């Protein structure tokens, strides 16, 4: 273990419903500013709305993407992924010309990318006969109206590809699609690339869009909050009155390096990656989380990090506000780390799909710069069935160096990473 290559985080970038970039994102966390609003469906459409959503405001890919013509082959998810990566690269104070292209890689977390309805409308209309869609006309009439390269906009692996091309990163390039676990699994994979000495620098990111109209029309919505009267207070992790999650969109990215490489260029170091754990078990019930998977992931990460739960300053939880999954997660935390403070930053911006965990992790990283752990938003009374020490109201001062980030899916998957804040 003494010869193990150490991995550190030197930069972060976020495109989120509560802000783009470090200053705006941290301001929202500091001020308790939510990015959730109500979306009412077009009354002429066959939509199950309304929904509570968290959308990214004032984002224009043209401000980040070079060459601009590349935007034609990028869905919104790919554009936000690209932007977050460039922001992270800048945050790490990297000079591309001074880096060895063969020693830079990219790993991205992603998920299903749904097409925009407007992109298909003309083709579908051409295939309508007597008021009904006719598949027999699609090949001869509809398909020729589609952009021949349209699929490249929606392939989950294209985020890593575009970022790799933009940075001329010729090292390992990979994509992981595992719902909300995607971001942490991407970080774990990228850290292991460096530990294997296959790269010096990795750009790790994740992107998701749960508010795409096509997705909202297609997916089931029984887990979404119905607190329409006050959208900004809808998502209430571990609260006794919680009733569901909020869907959002966004992207987050980190720059990680070997400690030796970061020190050689005198880089700003936010944290050191020290351990991880993953687990997948049969869900307790349909669409319910699994406390065993969460407990396995957390205990595995602690074991790999060679620390005890008492040494954790806090746990940055999944906390998505659904009754079943919050209960499962809280029960697991209480079993492994019953006295550790917990925060749930999803309360500010909802579920960003694959991007959520890295965006939340970035909240802890940037909070460490201010020596504080940002509080959970909206939770007024912690459910007695969720025995966690939730950070509420005001930020908590940092007291110990280590912290954990948890994520889980509703299919019995969980992941955990443990980091040590450095700020060197």
Task: Note down, in words, how this protein is organized.
This protein has 424 residues and is of the alpha/beta class. The protein has two domains: 7-115 and 154-421, 3-Layer(aba) Sandwich (Peroxisomal Thiolase, Chain A, domain 1); 117-150, no CATH class. Helix content is 29%, strand content 23%. The protein contains twelve helices and 18 strands. It has helices at 22-31, 76-91, 117-126, 138-142, 158-167, 182-195, 213-218, 259-264, 291-305, 323-336, 346-349, 356-369; strands spanning 7-16, 19-20, 37-39, 51-54, 104-110, 128-129, 132-133, 173-177, 201-209, 247-258, 271-280, 312-316, 341-343, 372-373, 389-390, 396-397, 402-408, 413-421. The strands form three sheets. Strands 1, 2, 3, 4, 5, 8, 9, 10, 11, 12, 13, 15, 17 and 18 form a 14-stranded mixed sheet that branches. Helix 2 (76-91) packs across helix 5 and helix 9 runs parallel beside helix 10 (323-336). It is globular and about 70 Å long. The model has no long low-confidence stretch (mean pLDDT 92).
Put simply, the count of helices is 12
- What structural class is derived from the secondary structure elements? alpha/beta
Question: What kind of sheet is the major sheet?
Answer: 14 strands, mixed
The radius of gyration is: 21 Å
Number of domains: 2
Please name the fourth-level CATH homologous superfamily of the largest domain.
Answer: Thiolase/Chalcone synthase
How are the elements arranged and paired?
Blueprint: E1 7-16, E2 19-20, H1 22-31, E3 37-39, E4 51-54, H2 76-91, E5 104-110, H3 117-126, E6 128-129, E7 132-133, H4 138-142, H5 158-167, E8 173-177, H6 182-195, E9 201-209, H7 213-218, E10 247-258, H8 259-264, E11 271-280, H9 291-305, E12 312-316, H10 323-336, E13 341-343, H11 346-349, H12 356-369, E14 372-373, E15 389-390, E16 396-397, E17 402-408, E18 413-421
Parallel strand pairs: 4-10, 5-8, 5-9, 12-13, 12-17, 13-15
Antiparallel strand pairs: 1-2, 1-10, 1-11, 3-4, 6-7, 9-10, 11-18, 14-16, 17-18
């Amino acid at each position: 273990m003494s010869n193990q290559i150490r991995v550190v985080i030197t930069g972060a970038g976020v495109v989120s419903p509560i802000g783009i970039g470090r200053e705006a994102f941290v301001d929202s966390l500091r001020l308790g500013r939510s990015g959730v609003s109500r979306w009412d469906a077009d009354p002429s459409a066959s939509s199950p709305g309304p929904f509570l959503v968290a959308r990214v405001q004032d984002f224009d890919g043209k401000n980040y993407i070079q060459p601009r013509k590349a935007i034609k082959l990028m869905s919104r998810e790919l554009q936000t992924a690209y932007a977050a990566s460039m922001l992270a690269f800048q945050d790490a104070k990297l000079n591309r010309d001074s880096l060895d292209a063969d020693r830079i890689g990219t790993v991205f977390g992603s998920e299903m990318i749904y097409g925009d309805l407007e992109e298909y409308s003309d083709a579908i209309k051409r295939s309508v006969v007597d008021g009904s869609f006719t598949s027999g006309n699609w090949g001869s009439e509809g398909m020729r109206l589609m952009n021949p390269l349209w699929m490249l906009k929606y392939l989950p692996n294209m985020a890593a590809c575009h970022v790799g091309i933009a940075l001329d990163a010729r090292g390992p390039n990979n994509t992981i699609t595992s719902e909300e676990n995607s971001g942490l699994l991407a970080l774990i994979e990228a850290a292991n690339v460096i530990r294997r000495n296959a790269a010096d620098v990795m750009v790790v990111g994740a992107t998701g869009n749960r508010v795409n109209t096509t997705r909202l029309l297609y997916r089931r919505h029984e887990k979404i909050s119905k607190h329409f009267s006050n959208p900004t207070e809808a998502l209430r992790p571990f609260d006794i009155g919680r009733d569901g999650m909020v869907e959002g969109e966004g992207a987050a990215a980190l720059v990680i390096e070997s400690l030796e490489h970061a020190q050689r260029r005198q880089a700003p170091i936010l944290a050191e990656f020290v351990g991880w754990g993953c687990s997948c078990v049969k869900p307790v019930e349909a669409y319910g989380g699994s406390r065993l998977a969460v407990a396995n992931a957390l205990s595995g990460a602690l074991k790999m990090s060679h620390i005890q739960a008492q040494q954790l300053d806090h746990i940055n939880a999944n906390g998505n506000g659904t009754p079943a999954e919050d209960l499962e997660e809280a029960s697991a935390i209480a079993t492994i780390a019953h006295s550790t403070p917990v925060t749930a930053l999803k309360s500010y911006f909802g579920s960003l799909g694959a991007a959520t965990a890295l965006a939340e992790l970035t909240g802890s990283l940037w909070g460490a710069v201010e020596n504080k752990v940002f509080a959970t938003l909206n939770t007024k009374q912690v459910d007695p069935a969720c025995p966690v020490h939730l950070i509420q109201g005001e930020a908590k001062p940092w007291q110990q160096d280590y912290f954990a980030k948890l994520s889980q899916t509703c299919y019995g998957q969980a992941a955990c990473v443990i980091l040590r804040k450095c700020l060197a």
